[in-house]
Each structure stands twice: as C-alpha cells, then as structure tokens.
C-alpha cells in the first residue's frame, strides 16, 4: 500500500514532533521550515513539565532530552524574604526510570526532535517558505513553496505558529488576540546549589521562575506587573534586583552573548474546527496557551502523539484530520480554561482564586495521557 504523504508547514516544536510521530507511523513526511538555519531559535529555556517529559518519552526522545537538559524534581516558592514558603514534588509521570521534570535550552530540544524526526525518515527542508496550498482534482494538496518543488501531499499539517498569512488563507482571518502580558526570558550563570525550579514574587507584583538547564546555566522567566519601558540589560537587572538573595543577582550573570527574549502573551484558540478537509492546524497555530503550568509545548506534543496514533494504513486523510480534531479539541479546551483562570489571576490576583487548587485541577487532567 502506498505510504501517506504528509507535508508539515513549520519546523517549531509542533511541526518537528508531528513529523517525528508521523514518520514513525510509516508516513512519507516532509517538514518545510522558513528559517534558513536549523535550530535558529531564540535563546531561552523550556520548562519540560512532567506531562511534557512523559510525552517526550512516548515520542522516543526522553533519554536524549534528559541527557541534554537538567532534571529537577521539586518546585519551591520563596517568600519575599527568600525563605521557602512551599515545596511541591513534581509527579513522575514519565515513569520510575525518568526524572519528574527537566529544564532545557530551547535550541537543544529542537535539535533532539529534529534529529529523531530525520532518523525516523522525515525530510527536513530549511529556508523554505510555504506561501499557499492548492487542492488538485484528485483532492490532494499541492504545497506552494519558495523551494519550488511543490510537494503533493495527502495531508497537510499546519504548524506555522500563532498567526500568519497561511493560517488566514486556510482558516480565514481571526482577530489577533491583544497581548495580555509580557514575559522576559534570559539565560544566566547557575548559582551554586540551585538545582530545582524556584518561583518567587515581589511585593510590587514582579514574578520570576527559574529552572536549571544544565550544570552551569539557569533559564529565567520574569514577568513584570507593567512592561518595562525598554528591555535592556540594565532595566532587567533593576527588575531582578527586587528579588531576594541569589535570585536578585541572577541578571548580573546574564549570558551577555544572548539577547533577552520578549514573549508577548496572546492566548487564543482557533475557531473550531481546526481542520479544513485535508489540512489540520496543530500547536500554537490552533491553540496558543498562556505559559501558566507550562502547557503550550506540552499540548503541541500531544497533538503529535494523537496524530501518530491515528495514522493507520488505508485510512482516508480527511478522516484522520477529523478524528484528530475530535480527540484534541475537548482536551485542549479544558487545559486552556484552567490555564486562563491562572493567567487572569496572575494579572489581577483575587482572593477567590486558589492558584494551588488550579494547579491540582490541571494535574488531574494532564496526568492521563491524551
Ligand atoms: C520565549 C518563549 C518561551 C517559551 N517557553 C515555553 C515553556 O517553557 N514551556 C512551554 O510549554 N512552552 C513555551 N513556549 C511556547 C512554545 O514554544 C510553543 O507553544 C511551542 O513551541 C509550539 O510552537 P509551534 O511549533 O506551534 O510554533 P512556533 O514555535 O511558532 O513554530 C512555528 C514555525 O513555523 C515556521 N513557519 C511559519 N510560517 C511558515 C511558512 N509559511 N512556511 C514555512 N515555515 C513557516 C516558523 O518559522 C516557525 O519556526 C515559549 C515560547 C516563547 C516564545
């Protein structure tokens, strides 16, 4: 039987993971990525939370991620004086032979996924911008790309990120969600003994989350109550100095060769359905989750795992897309609703919202694999 030809648009985490899962399931996969250089992603960390690590293991790349990252097992919240308020053990959802969670440099995670996808047989094409999709008389999709060799695909997986002309072409334009918040990410020298995830807040509303990513570096995520007027090493240092102890000094030891990465938070779900015939939207293209509870990339991996499970020989491509949507939509909506309650609380804390309870609610949902 002929192998299903799958074109993936976008080589971010969603596209790479879908490429890996689909190639493992026996499809003929080509990933089109507009960036010219593999791994040319902003320099920051990814907090690989327990369900995300479990799903990296399910994708067969758990060990490679553990080798490239820094395992941690606990999240500690510090008081404004720097003393521990609360320590929670992260659940070991990836099983007894893997750690609970990891910090990783984003480019390392991309490299692990890209290598595994290629080893599984996927073809990765960099520097290829997909400008459009056209359906031929047989129903197959022609990929109109700058490379010019125009793959003809049975199924197109749109993993092109949170917005963009191609998504608008396929799904219609949707208003770009207003940015609710700005978070800053940078890498810094790891203070001695910082070997778990640390969360802290100041009396004036800044929050910081720090995760070790290797033996010498930590990833820092800073959210200020109001966006900094200008993001410079000085302004970041001044904002960080409001935190107690070693946290306050982290920006003094920023990796000077890497810029601070700004992330404007624009949470949004693409209007249902996330499919148009043989085209399906995955990752941030379908669901840009807020960063609370670290579910944005985790849900992109779930998209990939479910896609891989549904690719059975002889199954019609549009049926795969439809079945995929039916499984993914309710789950992502549930995760989004919990994460959004956390995001609202983060912007305007109220006494009725119990953040810990939300975190447990989320854990209950994602503890069961997609
Ligand atoms: C600073 C920062 C920190 C983050 N930290 C975390 C974290 O700790 N935990 C977490 O869960 N999530 C995190 N996220 C979110 C997470 O990175 C995304 O949810 C995840 O990567 C899935 O993204 P994606 O692959 O769908 O889209 P993207 O990462 O946006 O990738 C889309 C890709 O498609 C390519 N592309 C777009 N259009 C075209 C086209 N027409 N032709 C060809 N290629 C195209 C782009 O070049 C890009 O490489 C973070 C995001 C940012 C920005």
The domain tally reads 2
Spatial strand order of the main sheet:
6-5-14-15-16-13-17
Percent of residues in beta strands: 25-35%
Q: Ranges with pLDDT <50 over ≥5 residues?
A: none
Most strands sheet: 7 strands, mixed
Radius of gyration: 21 Å
Bound heterogens, unique: flavin-adenine dinucleotide
Question: Any idea what the CATH architecture of the largest domain is?
Answer: 3-Layer(bba) Sandwich
What is the count of DSSP helices, taking H or I runs of 4+ residues?
A: 10
What would you call the shape? Answer: globular
CATH class division of the largest domain: Alpha Beta
Structural class: alpha+beta
Count of strand segments: 21
Task: Give a structural overview.
The structure is a single chain. The longest helix has 31 residues, at 317-347. A hairpin with a 6-residue loop joins strand 10 (141-145) and strand 11. The chain has a 7-stranded mixed beta sheet with strand order 6-5-14-15-16-13-17, with no helix packed on it. It is built from 10 helices and 21 strands. It is α+β, with helices and mostly antiparallel strands and 370 residues long. The radius of gyration is 21 Å and the shape is globular. The chain starts with a strand and ends with a helix. The chain folds into 2 domains: 5-41 and 106-176 and 267-366, FAD/NAD(P)-binding domain (3-Layer(bba) Sandwich); 181-265, D-Amino Acid Oxidase, Chain A, domain 2, CATH 3.30.9.30. The model has no long low-confidence stretch (mean pLDDT 92). Helix 1 runs parallel beside helix 8 (296-310) and helix 9 runs antiparallel to helix 10. The protein is 32% helix and 26% strand. It binds flavin-adenine dinucleotide. Flavin-adenine dinucleotide binds at residues 9-15, 32-35, 42, 44, 46-47, 129-130, 159-161, 164, 166, 185, 261, 263, 283-285, 291, 294-298, 300.
């Amino acid at each position: 039987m002929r192998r299903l030809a799958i074109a993936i648009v976008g080589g971010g985490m969603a596209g790479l993971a879908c490429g890996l899962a689909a190639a493992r399931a026996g499809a003929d996969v080509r990933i089109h990525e507009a960036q010219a250089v593999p791994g040319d992603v902003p320099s920051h960390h990814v907090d690989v939370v327990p369900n995300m690590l479990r799903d990296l293991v399910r994708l067969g790349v758990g060990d490679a991620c553990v080798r490239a990252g820094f395992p941690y097992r606990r999240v500690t919240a510090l008081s404004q004086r720097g003393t521990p308020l609360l320590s929670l053990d992260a659940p070991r959802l990836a099983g007894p032979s893997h750690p609970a969670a990891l910090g990783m440099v984003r480019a390392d995670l991309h490299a692990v996924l890209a290598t595994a996808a290629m080893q599984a047989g996927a073809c990765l094409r960099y520097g290829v911008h997909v400008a459009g999709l056209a359906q031929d008389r047989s129903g197959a999709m022609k990929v109109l790309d700058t490379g010019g060799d125009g793959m003809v695909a049975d199924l197109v997986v749109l993993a092109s990120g949170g917005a963009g002309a191609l998504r608008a072409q396929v799904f219609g334009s949707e208003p770009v969600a207003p940015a609710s918040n700005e978070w800053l990410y940078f890498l810094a020298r790891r203070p001695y003994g910082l070997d778990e995830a640390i969360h802290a807040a100041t009396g004036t509303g800044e929050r910081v989350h720090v995760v070790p990513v290797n033996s010498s570096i930590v990833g820092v995520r800073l959210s200020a109550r109001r966006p900094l007027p200008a993001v410079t090493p000085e302004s970041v240092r001044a904002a960080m100095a409001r935190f107690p102890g070693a946290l306050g000094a982290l920006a003094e030891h920023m990796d000077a060769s890497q810029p601070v990465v700004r992330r404007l938070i624009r949470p949004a779900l693409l209007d249902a359905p996330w499919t148009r015939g043989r085209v399906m939207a995955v990752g941030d293209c379908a669901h840009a989750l807020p960063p609370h509870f670290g579910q944005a990339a985790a849900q992109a991996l779930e998209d990939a795992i479910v896609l891989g499970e549904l690719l059975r020989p002889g199954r019609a491509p549009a049926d795969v897309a439809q079945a995929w949507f039916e499984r993914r939509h309710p789950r992502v909506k549930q995760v989004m609703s919990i994460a959004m309650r956390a995001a609202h609380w983060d912007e305007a804390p109220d006494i009725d919202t119990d953040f810990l309870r939300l975190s447990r609610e989320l854990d209950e949902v994602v503890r069961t694999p997609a």
